[in-house]
């Protein structure tokens, strides 16, 4: 279980995220929605460690992560995908995934043993990377430099890297941003596949309400940095708070 307690960040006199407390259970996909500037990506940054919190705490499976770096939180089980791809452009598709697999595995590649042990270990890492590429339908591109891939395939590869890290929590920040109408369904299909694993927790920041309605088990709404709604998708989307946050139909009262 992932939990934030009174999570807050201030930039000078501006409170970008204001005392947000929320629990996210395994086996659920929670969509985090709100208008531009509501604090959604900032909240993600606080959870994943890209930003230090001004106050509050982050816990995963009962362990406090608040003072850990972003990389340490990744090792603890938080997997984060960004709005912009975060890949090694000059390496091949397979090399990118193999490095992600290697980062999570013990073996001869870490212990500096004899060449045969290292080669055997390298083979196991490569086979696992190939399995992941098969699951995201990228086997044919395994030898291609990442820089040569179209944007949609780079987003697919980023999901593959997340899968290689085997996180307890998947965090997707606008996963279809910049993708064409034909490219977006591939990423959404991958998220649907991840949802089938009921041991995993998925958080999704997404502006496209049709995507949210289809994928989300739960919606939370941020507005001016505050948590203003939390519940089942139909109930939350019909609430006056959400109507105001998106369309200005009524006064928001947190």
What tags apply to this protein structure?
39% helix; four-stranded antiparallel sheet; disordered C terminus; six-stranded mixed sheet; 254 residues; alpha/beta; 10 strands; Rossmann fold; single chain
Short structural summary:
The chain is an alpha/beta fold. The protein is built from ten helices and ten strands.
Polypeptide structure, described:
- The structure is a single chain.
- The strands form 2 sheets. The chain has a 6-stranded mixed beta sheet with strand order 6-7-8-3-9-10, with helices on both faces.
- Helix 3 crosses helix 5, helix 5 packs across helix 6 and helix 6 runs parallel beside helix 7.
- The longest helix is centred in the middle third of the chain and has 21 residues.
- It is globular, with a radius of gyration of 19 Å.
- The protein has a domain of 143 residues: Rossmann fold, CATH 3.40.50.
- By secondary structure, the protein is α/β, with parallel strands linked by helices.
